[in-house]
Design brief:
Layout: H1 2-10, H2 14-26, H3 29-42, H4 51-75, H5 91-110, H6 115-135, H7 142-156, H8 162-178, H9 184-206
Helix pairs in contact: 2-8, 3-4, 3-7, 4-5, 5-6, 6-7, 6-9, 7-8, 7-9, 8-9
């Protein structure tokens, strides 16, 4: 109750709202996706002779192409802003995003990239499909789902820093509420879905 009152008061502060916007961009799903692939490919011991090619494919289909699609849709006035804040407008870029993840996954599989890299791209695909289904009826936080998914991947890989990870999740929730992009329930559901789906997919199919 006190937490919700604090957030309600904070939303009226222009300074805090700007802080929330800055955090939202720093923890943007596209940024998180790129950092996740980069860290796993370059900072972990993976059996691959072509890390640069694998990173380029991962970056292109998980980040660059979806961004280009959103910018194109914005240019065509099919979405009102680059954040795609309108719930109904999110369906089309999500559909294109899912297609991009699917193509990326197929290519990564064809070149026999490490299973964890295939798994991360597959999680992006399935999570996007789930978000699309949910978004048809209710607005879920893509930011919190994305950060929860990334932290789940790192946890599975042995980076079990519960306090730091919890703080990142809380920071993302606060940022999304301060910008009035989501309610507390929308942010929390994003976290729950991100953790459950990512964990189950990686454990069942890729690890």
């Amino acid at each position: 109750m006190l937490f919700e009152k604090f957030l309600a008061i904070s939303q009226n502060s222009i300074m805090l709202k700007n802080i929330g916007i800055s955090i939202s961009y720093l923890l943007h799903p596209m940024v998180i996706s790129t950092l996740t692939f980069w860290f796993v490919i370059y900072q972990m011991t993976l059996t691959t002779d072509e890390p640069n090619l694998i990173f380029f494919i991962s970056f292109f289909f998980s980040t660059l192409l979806p961004i280009v699609v959103v910018l194109y849709l914005k240019n065509q006035s099919l979405v009102s802003d680059i954040d795609v804040s309108n719930r109904k407008e999110r369906l089309l870029p999500m559909a294109f995003g899912a297609l991009s993840f699917l193509i990326g996954f197929i290519i990564l599989r064809q070149i026999n990239s490490p299973m964890i890299i295939q798994g991360i791209m597959f999680c992006n695909l399935i999570n996007t499909i789930l978000m699309w289904l949910i978004t048809k009826h209710w607005k879920i936080s893509i930011h919190t789902l994305s950060i929860a998914s990334a932290l789940t991947i790192f946890w599975i890989l042995g980076f079990e820093y519960a306090i730091i990870m919890s703080l990142l999740l809380i920071l993302t929730i606060i940022a999304r509420i301060l910008t009035k992009a989501h309610t507390l329930s929308q942010a929390l559901v994003g976290i729950i879905v991100g953790i459950i789906t990512t964990y189950s997919q990686l454990i069942l199919f890729f690890l």
